[in-house]
Amino acid sequence: MTDIVDWVAVDWGTSNLRAWGIAADGAVTFSRNSPKGMGKLTREDYPAALSELLDGVTGTRAGSIDVLVCGMAGARQGWLEAPYLEAPTDLRHLLAGAVQPAMPNTRFAVSILPGVCQKNGADNVMRGEETQLLGLAALRPGYTGVVCMPGTHSKWAQLSGTHIDHFATAMTGELFEILSTHSVLRHSLNGPLDGPARAEGFVAGAEAGLARPQDLLGQLFQVRAGSLLSGRAPDWCAGFLSGLLIGTEIGSNRHLIGAEPVPLIGSAALCALYADVLAKTGATGIPVDATDVVLAGLKAARSAIA
Amino acid sequence: MTDIVDWVAVDWGTSNLRAWGIAADGAVTFSRNSPKGMGKLTREDYPAALSELLDGVTGTRAGSIDVLVCGMAGARQGWLEAPYLEAPTDLRHLLAGAVQPAMPNTRFAVSILPGVCQKNGADNVMRGEETQLLGLAALRPGYTGVVCMPGTHSKWAQLSGTHIDHFATAMTGELFEILSTHSVLRHSLNGPLDGPARAEGFVAGAEAGLARPQDLLGQLFQVRAGSLLSGRAPDWCAGFLSGLLIGTEIGSNRHLIGAEPVPLIGSAALCALYADVLAKTGATGIPVDATDVVLAGLKAARSAIA
Fold this sequence. Notes:
Two copies of one chain form a homodimer. The first copy, chain A, is of the alpha/beta class and 306 residues long. Helix content of chain A is 34%, strand content 25%. A five-stranded mixed beta sheet of chain A has the order 4-3-2-6-9, with helices on one face. In chain A, strands 8-14-13-12 form a four-stranded antiparallel beta sheet, covered by helices on one side. Chains A, B: This is 2-keto-3-deoxy-galactonokinase.
């Protein structure tokens, strides 16, 4: 690890700020993290948060060090809004849509990549995932098909090489969180949630969701009824709720899945669950490391004009 | 209005306690309300809450005054658990399943009606709605078909006269509440929600839900995208979210609707929205007054052995 870099790659999300030093040959020279995500910052805090994280970093050339940022720093409520590209579009155009926020000195020359939006009755937005998708296209040149990105707001994107044709967002992770915390179902999840019945509950929920994705509103209440009538333990109920939501998400997107394995980009634990549920439909999910694709995406975005 | 009664009918829900004096000819002699619903009471509070509400009530005969209670007072976390009858069942059996909680004196002889449950892979519970359904059967003898009961936890019950064949619960109202309050969608609902665009948003949401009930997880995020991309106002977003949830609920239960108009039991405002969405499917919804059916149900339950 060295602090001498050609440029700096940054993923600035809602919860975290991550930076990697990149050498002229593309090698990663350092990796640094900070909890200063968009959610904790006001607009004025960004320059200092970045300078602090990049303290001691030196460029291999004279002049400013380029810093290329993707993620929520470019949101309207972030550092400086980077207006969305509109899908369908070629993700190699990301850098052309970047914006340059002001810094108090010339040490760093910052560019923030745009997100991607979709209009015409299928209104949708992504910010951060577009860079991961470009990275996937760089790591698997020519891949054509759907990409599933599980998370708080899961994305399902249809990719043809570096071209994004269409995408959708499923509020699966957030729904699990608010149902567990704020709905009547919380009474059924009041206890240890990682017990041995969780896996069994997950399978039951996933099968229910896959079989009847149109009945999510009705099937949710079975978590409560299961604990009241059948004495289901909190771990079973948590597994059922998680499986039901993921099964419903995958069941409703099944028509997008072709013959090729589906790349899964997200946390390793979540991708493993999605791969299990995909297997029940006869499809295959291939977990892809999320850090690998974001780094590959920032490199690919930069090389589009380099 | 008089405090002299033959017996007292009580609907004891989560939020409210309501009592009606009933004369020997079935006429209502008084109507009283209290905010002392199950949610605000411990087990020990029930006798005093009831005595307080029925202060001054006198029986037409010597001895204790019968008080017949339906609703959450019979839940495990209520006054005294009245174990569920299991569907399919005849609702004329409700009184036979009632329990008698202890009172500090013999002025009132209280019976609490059971709820109805469903097992065998379609786990479900209702408590209070079964009495309304019996009331509907009394007011519309012989009605056979589905009954929709919109609310926090909407019920869809299949009735043949006084016989309940099957039922389901949709967490529609609760989902609207927690999504509005706790999810990322709250940012799109931050402002006046009863403006002129609400009706337009409701129609757009209802049509989206009816068209694709299997895609609720995906369509929810369009509330957020609609405000970010298309400048949708909070009233439009609230209408869209409400319409999307109700449209999805009705869309996923469409196969239950036959040629006959669908009785709608719930608040007048909510029943009107459901009737509008039902009309888009070519069906007709007939709002039925919820107080009328609960009173008719308590009378019918009592007369089953009288």
